[in-house]
Specification:
alpha+beta
Length: 224
């Protein structure tokens, strides 16, 4: 009889567990993997060729205009990787420098002598390849977690999605989402002098309409 009671009790517990398990909300099985809030960064490339006349290393007016149109239409600017494919002769190198000068005048950095497998070259042209990182933001909002069944009061599945999207849309160089820019060495002497001046109440001159704290700690208007 005693063993029978134990078996009955164990069976009741199993039935109860199954019953409660069947009533568990679906959100208990939800995972953050279902709501990825990350920007996707991809690299795209544009190509342009600059044609040169035989034995000349200067761009013609027509080719210079074509290059300027390419730069304008593709909105070539900060963050783009501007690569020039090299030639094998001294003439080809001079032509490469002539093309590079058009970008340098616009304040852009050019990477010379880049070799890309599968891209053919001819003796009369310089190939320009522009690489650009673009951002695909996460889909927002994300309602993969149902808020009406969230009995655990956990954060919503789309919390942080707008932050990630805004970051991807506002960053000047999306490539820095993959690898950040290295920081330059800090000037410790300059930083210490600024801290010392601040502690002594010495403030730099302000522009018209700016504010500065006075001796009492109040904020007053700068001199007009």
């Amino acid at each position: 009889m005693k063993n029978a009671c134990k078996s009955l009790t164990a069976g009741a517990l199993i039935v109860s567990a199954l019953a409660f398990g069947g009533c568990a909300p679906q959100t208990s099985q939800w995972s953050e993997v279902e709501a990825q809030k990350q920007n996707k960064v991809s690299l795209i490339r544009f190509s342009h060729t600059v044609q040169f006349r035989a034995n000349e290393d200067r761009m013609s007016a027509a080719e210079a205009a074509r290059l300027a149109t390419f730069m304008r239409d593709q909105n070539v600017g900060y963050g783009d990787q501007i690569m020039l494919l090299p030639g094998d002769s001294a003439l080809a190198q001079r032509r490469q420098e002539a093309v590079a000068a058009a970008f340098v005048r616009g304040g852009l950095r050019v990477i010379r002598d880049v070799r890309i497998e599968g891209v053919p070259l001819t003796a009369s042209e310089v190939r320009v390849v522009v690489g650009r990182h673009v951002v695909t933001p996460p889909p927002c909002p994300n309602w993969s977690r149902r808020p009406d069944e969230d009995f655990g009061n956990a954060p919503s599945s789309h919390i942080g999605c707008a932050t990630a999207t805004n970051l991807g849309l506002m960053i000047a160089d999306p490539g820095e989402l993959l690898i950040g820019q290295p920081t330059s060495p800090a000037d410790g002497e300059l930083a210490a002098s600024r801290v010392e001046a601040y502690r002594k109440g010495v403030y730099p001159s302000l522009l018209k309409g700016d504010v500065r704290p006075n001796s009492r700690g109040d904020v007053t208007k700068g001199a007009k």
